[in-house]
Amino acid sequence: MRVATMATGGIGGYLAVKLTRAGHEVAAIARGPHLEAIRRDGLRLEGADGVEVAHPWMATDDPAEVGPVDAIVFAVKGDALEAAARACLPMLGPDTVVVPFLNGVEAADRLSRILPPQHVADGVTRVSTTITAPGVLRQTGTFGSFHFGERDNRPSARIDALRQAIAATGAEAPSVDDIAAESWSKFVLFAAMSGVTAAGRCTVGDILAIPELGALFRAAATETEAVARARGVALPPGIVDDVWSFLNSVPPGGRASTAIDIEAGRPIEVEWVSGAAVRLGAEVGVPTPVNAMLYALLLPHRTGH
Ligand SMILES: NC(=O)C1=CN([C@@H]2O[C@H](COP(=O)(O)OP(=O)(O)OC[C@H]3O[C@@H](n4cnc5c(N)ncnc54)[C@H](OP(=O)(O)O)[C@@H]3O)[C@@H](O)[C@H]2O)C=CC1
Ligand SMILES: CC(C)(CO)C(=O)C(=O)O
Q1: What CATH number matches the domain at 2-177, 3.40.1440.60, 3.90.1570.10, 3.40.1130.10, 3.40.50.720?
Q2: Model confidence over 160-213: pLDDT tens digits?
Q3: Cα gap 145→166, rounded to integer Å
Q4: What is the CATH number of domain 181-301?
Q5: Does 14 score more than 90 pLDDT?
Q6: Cα 11 to Cα 196: distance, rounded to the nearest angstrom
Q7: pLDDT by residue (tens digit) across 121-145?
Q8: Ligand nearest to the CA of 190
Q9: Where is the signal peptide, in residue numbers (predicted)?
Q10: DSSP secondary structure string, the chain?
Q11: What's the CA-to-centroid distance between 87 and ligand 2, angstroms?
Q12: I need a surface site. Which of 66, 80, 201, 261 has the fewest CB within 10 A?
């Protein structure tokens, strides 16, 4: 397949390495020193499968050089979505699928305001990866799953092709019956994990070990579950217990990417995570006081330092 990663950070870079090494033509969209390093040395992933280096088919900051691709793995931070989406336009062919893996539940709607909606699918990932130096990515833990589908859940050859390509690399890419339920299930986890680990400057191990923090996490997750159900999302029963169980698969020192970003002084996605839980709850009359408190505590750090 010909796949573009817009862009080639933690998520896009992880898939760029895996798909390139599996023989696919990957156009890695990146910029600045990160792009220079990828061009010079390739992209290095230090992770669950050891050290893997890949030299993508193309590495560029100009999507017009790439031309139409089969699929775009769309993974930039929430605040960068609009500009990155506009930059994707030259890579759209007649049946190109754009799969967003951003945290939060609003990326597909936001993309559909910029790209022709028939190109936009929806997706969610559970993996923990970060850029540690130009051209270098580090994965924390061993989990790595990618769940995606057409927004109306119809069968789709283009989704199946990308799913098979990712699954063949050893990452999990199961078929998805209800992508909205999948996205919101991750959001129930992530809004709580992001809010608590970033605002509390703590780890998943702390959440599991300190009953007061565990209760805060569960209260935040319970609110987000209520928001989802009020919006008509068919979440599985016991979702808060499920996300609690997921915490046990994260290494004790693990944190949400929001917490890693805040510590590094980078902008954080608070508007699209805790802020979205509050905003989307208010739209359907569901109070979210715990998420509102976490949102308020994180707002001063929104733009990094
Ligand atoms: N990393 C993780 O473990 C997980 C992340 N997610 C979500 O995935 C999304 C992406 O996160 P992640 O991969 O970590 O982000 P990163 O910050 O690692 O990567 C994003 C990259 O996009 C680049 N970029 C942004 N806009 C453009 C552009 N217009 N042209 C070229 N490059 C651009 C950034 O460059 P620059 O630095 O120059 O701005 C950066 O290198 C987020 O919503 C995140 O919450 C979800 C699950 C896990
Ligand atoms: C919680 C986690 C690690 C799961 O993939 C994540 O999404 C993030 O840190 O951004």
Answers
A1: 3.40.50.720
A2: 999 999 999 999 999 999 999 999 999 999 999 999 999 999 999 999 999 999
A3: 9
A4: 1.10.1040.10
A5: yes
A6: 22
A7: 999 999 999 999 999 999 999 999 9
A8: 2
A9: none
A10: -EEEEES-SHHHHHHHHHHHHTT-EEEEE--HHHHHHHHHH-EEEEETTEEEEE--SEEES-HHHH--EEEEEE---GGGHHHHHHHHGGGEEEEEEEEE--SSS-HHHHHHTTS-GGGBEEEEEEEEEEEEETTEEEEEEEEEEEEEEETT----HHHHHHHHHHHTTTSB----S-HHHHHHHHHHHHHHHHHHHHHTT--HHHHHH-HHHHHHHHHHHHHHHHHHHHTT--PPTTHHHHHHHHHTTS-TT---HHHHHHHTT----GGGTHHHHHHHHHHTT---HHHHHHHHHHGGGTT--
A11: 26
A12: 201
Tell me how far apart the alpha carbons of residues 9 and 277 are, in angstroms, rounded to a whole number: 25
Question: What tokens does 124 get?
Answer: 């969610």
Ligand 2 pocket by Cβ (under 6 Å): 103, 125-128, 190, 193, 256-257
pLDDT band at 305 (very low <50, low <70, confident <90, very high): confident
Cut 0.90: pTM above it: yes
Mean per-residue pLDDT over the chain, rounded: 97
* Shortest-distance ligand to the CA of residue 139: 1
Sole residue written with tokens 């569960």: 218
Note the residue count of the chain: 305
**Is the CB–ligand 1 distance for residue 85 below 6 Å?**
no
- Is the confidence at residue 238, as pLDDT, over 90? yes
**Residue 287 pLDDT exceeds 90:** yes
Q: Which residue has the tokens 């997706």?
A: 123
Is residue 20 in contact with ligand 1, taking CB distance under 6 Å? Answer: no
Q: Which amino acid type is present at position 271?
A: E
Residue-level pLDDT at 200: 97
